[in-house]
Amino acid sequence: MDIFTRLHLHFKARSIGTDEFGNRYYEERKARPGKPPRRYVRYNGMVEASKVPADWHGWLHHTEDSPPPEGGYRRHDWQQDHLPNTTGTKFAHRPAGHVLKGGKRAPATGDYEPWSPV
Fold first, then answer.
1. Helix locations, the chain, DSSP H
2. What is the pTM of this model?
3. Which of 18, 61, 65, 94 could cysteine-pair with 101, CB 3.0–4.6 Å?
4. Side-chain half-sphere CA neighbours of 94 within 13 A
5. What angle do CA 15, 21, 39 make, to 5 degrees?
């Protein structure tokens, strides 16, 4: 992080909290006239918007007035852990038949008729 960003956060913003990925969240100390105070996230590692968990996303986008409680909100049994977007990485989903997964597609079942213009 460059020195300008560090100075800006130190003098203009106050620390609100940290998520389980190490991202830090800030809010402007002084709001602009007629507007809510800006909210910031300082990413831990690579800057990627999908690294913001749902608990903090609501606060960051002014959907929630207060930040999530320490440890996050109570979760339902069916909820999965948050994962950043893995598109373009070795962890990306590649269905059967994908070129990078062998490229073998299942044979056609015969129920397909190609369209041909008349």
1. 3-12, 54-60
2. 0.70
3. 94
4. 14
5. 35
